[in-house]
Amino acid sequence: MPNVNTLIERMRYWCVDANMGYSQYDRWNFNPNGGNCDCSSLVIHCLQEAGFDTGDATYTGNLSANLTARGWVRVVNDGDPQAGDILLNDADHVAVYLGGGMLAQASISENNSIAGNAGDQTGWETNVSAYYNYPWNCFLRWNGAGNEDDMTIDELYAAQGNDGRNLWDSVIQTRSELRDRASEGASNALITTKGNDGRNVLDSVIQARWDIAELKTMLTAQAATIETLAKAVGTNPADIAKVVEQQVKAKLDKLQINVSASEKK
């Protein structure tokens, strides 16, 4: 299933965690221990890892045509990209916007040329940097189906990248990175602001996000069960759902809850 968040995670992985150099002559050497890529092979590779169909795309010049035929749209460069946008100069360069004012890219070899040795010799051959305007001819933005929000917990565990981490682990790692970043700047309030349960805002948001995902999975399963039962007994699924609701309500009505309190002195 294509996933913009996975695209962002894979770009960050290959540009920060993996040891990737820059070379247009060795551009498909995706070895995390010492490989090479160029700007377009990096984006195409990460798109494929994230489940996107890249068609016959091989370089910046044919990237737009292949992606716009497969769910992406060209958006005017207004200087305000969205996380997951592909930043494209059709003739010369491509990168991915990560959000938060940052982009990921393959830049230049250790020789300041288009050819270099495997592995990042300078720490900047592949990198995450502040957003800048190359200039970009457009932003390619995903407009198709499929997103992490539609994935069940089981699917999150099953989907894995080349580093062996599943999406759940990747999200937890991203959470840790956000926490570290928040502690360094003004958004420290995300961590220091706490609710009555003792959790900070960041923890609460992450937990709520996954509670909602789990609830969606449970409701989908329940709906499928009711539909199957309805077909078996030859009745309307809504009628069965109503009966279940009435039975639950009847049990709740029978409960007796005693509450006592004393004034603190």
From TrEMBL:
Hydrolase listed as a keyword: yes
InterPro entries for this protein: ELLD (IPR057370), NLP_P60_dom (IPR000064), Papain-like_cys_pep_sf (IPR038765)
Pfam families: ELLD (PF25309)
Keywords from the UniProt entry: Hydrolase, Protease, Thiol protease
Single GO MF descriptor: hydrolase activity
All residue ranges annotated as the NlpC/P60 domain in the record: 1-135
Family listed: Belongs to the peptidase C40 family.
Protein name: Peptidoglycan hydrolase
Organism: Bifidobacterium panos
Lineage, highest ranks first: Bacteria, Bacillati, Actinomycetota, Actinomycetes, Bifidobacteriales
